[in-house]
Specification:
- The complex is a heterodimer.
- Chain A is mostly helical.
- Chain A is built from 18 helices and four strands.
- Chain A is globular and about 85 Å long.
- Chain B has one domain: Cytochrome c oxidase, subunit III, four-helix bundle (Four Helix Bundle (Hemerythrin (Met), subunit A)), CATH 1.20.120.80.
- Chain B is 76% helix and 0% strand.
- In chain B, α2 packs antiparallel against α5 and α3 packs antiparallel against α4.
- The chains are: A mainly alpha, B mainly alpha.
Amino acid sequence: MSVAESHLHDHHDDHEHDHHDLPWIKKYVFSEDHKVIAKQYLISGIIWAIIGGGLSLLFRLQLAYPDANFEWLKPILGGWIQNGKLDPEFYLALVTMHGTIMVFFVLTAGLSGTFSNFLIPLQIGARDMASGFLNMLSYWFFFVSGVIMLISLFIETGPAGGGWTVYPPLSALPQAISGSGLGMTLWLISMALFIVSTLLGGLNYITTVINLRTKGMSFLRMPLTIWAFFITAIIGLLSFPVLFSAALLLIFDRTFGTSFFLSDIYIAGQALSFEGGSPVLFQHLFWFLGHPEVYIVLLPALGITSEIVATNSRKPIFGYKAMIGSMLAIAFLSFIVWAHHMFISGMNPFLGSIFMFLTLIIAVPSAVKAFNYITTLWRGNIIFTPAMLFSIGLVSFFISGGLTGIVLGNSAADIQLHDTYFVVAHFHIVMGSASFFGMLAGVYHWFPKMFGRMMDDKLGYLHFWITFIGVYMVFFPMHYIGIAGFPRRYYSFTGFDFTQSFTDLSQIITIAAIVTFAAQFIFLFNFLFSIFKGRRATENPWRSNTLEWTTPVEPGHGNWPGAIPTVYRWAYDYSKPGAEDDFIPQNVPFSETKGSNFPHENEQMVAEAGITHGK
Amino acid sequence: MNQHELNLQSSEPQKPLSMHPKKFAFWLFLVTVLMIFAALTSAYIVRRADGGWLEFQLPSIFWLNSVIIVISSVTMQLAYFAAKKDSLEKTKLYLLLTSVLGLAFLVGQFYAWGDLVEINVFFGGKGSNPSGSFLYVLTGMHGLHLISAVIFLWVVFAQSFKYKVHSKSMLVIECCTTYWHFLGGLWIYLFGFLLLNH
């Protein structure tokens, strides 16, 4: 019997879920349980984050110390170090792989994959996802996609090197750069599988949220995390197929000699046979995914943060409906601003001003969100758990990175700043670091529910402060370097006089990056150690309202041993005047909290009676 | 339970969407397919506006293929109705007929490619133009999806022999019918799109 069906009449088959006799491989490897799949995503995401972060250190070393002897890296990089110098094409491959891995494998799969899978069924009151099988398939498509990407790091011609945006003609012609050979082919195969994985996951998230909510869990009682995951999945469902189309046409150009994106190209004086293609067309298709992807990465982090900030401020989230509205607005706008990545592509300048206008509108819902976070914190009884610190860190990055977004959204300013380190600084703060902080906050916060134990707070604080200061130390100076005119993706700046005076700044960035990266191992130690030796958690360690905290310390298959709880109220009844405790979980009826009910809530008690009798 | 309580209960949404979750997920899958073709046809328009576009006559066999796929939609719907009325023999017959028509459509599309080659419109290589390449990609992608739909049809066909398709077990044949109509509609859209933008 499928989980979906059993959910609909769960009151008479609660015990069918106790199949503990599943073979090991179905329980831990090809598991269809959403909690196991979430952990698989989390651990894969962590491994990819270490690889992706490690690659960035390699090219940071090159940028800060272009004259140094890198012979000592030979044991890792082998032939890519020649005479103590990093191979310039491999430098480009490092940048490309860092971007691809971080955007897709860490912040899309690692973040959405982990928390959508873990929290959607637990917070809406479902036994599992709509289709456990598709969910399992989704993870294993991601896994295979990752294996292929990993293999591409070790082939002789190197991994893809045309930037994570893989613009043709550079990515389409193997003659252009060695990474556009087999490395690029593997990149495309890997991404095609990744798209399938994301779509399978997204199908499941949307279906589960719409169809499998427990009794009383109306849309306006859903925690903001669920709203965020739900909207993220919709964005992904609409935008990833477009990337698939773009990748398909690129594959045809590379393999079958079509000219969708290629035209009038001469290599070594010889004209290639491509005729009539348009490279700008690829940019349109790519950024139609690429821009929504920014929000696919960021929205789950914002949702997680909303939940953590409200819980640890012991206050209702400020402007619950405004938060939903602004997420919907951001999602809608994300589809009509893609060309702000292409202001200097030769696109019609009139189009540029339309896209500039639409882009700047995004500042409105974003400001609403920032305002609501701050007003939720305002005069709250703040409990500074590590998760809370990381959430506040996210708010900080969201604001400081969002401000430079307004600068870059202006097409006139962007002509100067495009493809400089200013852009790098902007998106690493607002999209990279903010989402990464959301992910870390989520791990600290839901670790007790995932593993039944607590992570160590002191190590968490240490991890937070080094990372928080480190991120600003890395990316803040980049703004200056960018305004000074440093282009991104350059192997070495020593050839130009104007760049000489910034070498020391580059070195500070690199040292800060190494320290920040090293601090992540504090987290890794804390994470692994706590899984086995951490302090035992209670059912609801943060005194939180949402349904996942009504499950046992380590929820088993089917999540709730008995019936699924019914929901009577929204998720944010913290510090309600007149209440016994400073939190009232969602499954507590109004009839049990007469002292704290508002007048309209007393009216709802009649409705509650209806539910109870109806059952 | 009195009427008053019933009303109150319905104000508390228990199952807000009375759709089977798997069916709902299937509809979402159709959305992703739709987005692939939306992207391709948008790319077609954008690229065409750039000029340097080879104009040529669409193969006339497309008309015949369109008629075939419309008829196949009718037989598919008849199969669905028959299953709903538990007339299983009719269901099998119509399913078989639909899959034959589907295969006929695919063969017709293949002949259309032959016609294109005859007037020197190629997919790739020297002398190919994006206008031709787009036509191959659109028809090819649609054809691939139609092949998957024929396989789906065979699965339903096989299930009907095991008495798994009847009025109380309609989910699979319902999804299959939806998919079939969707792909038929998609072809009509693509054909109309090509006629208009040519």
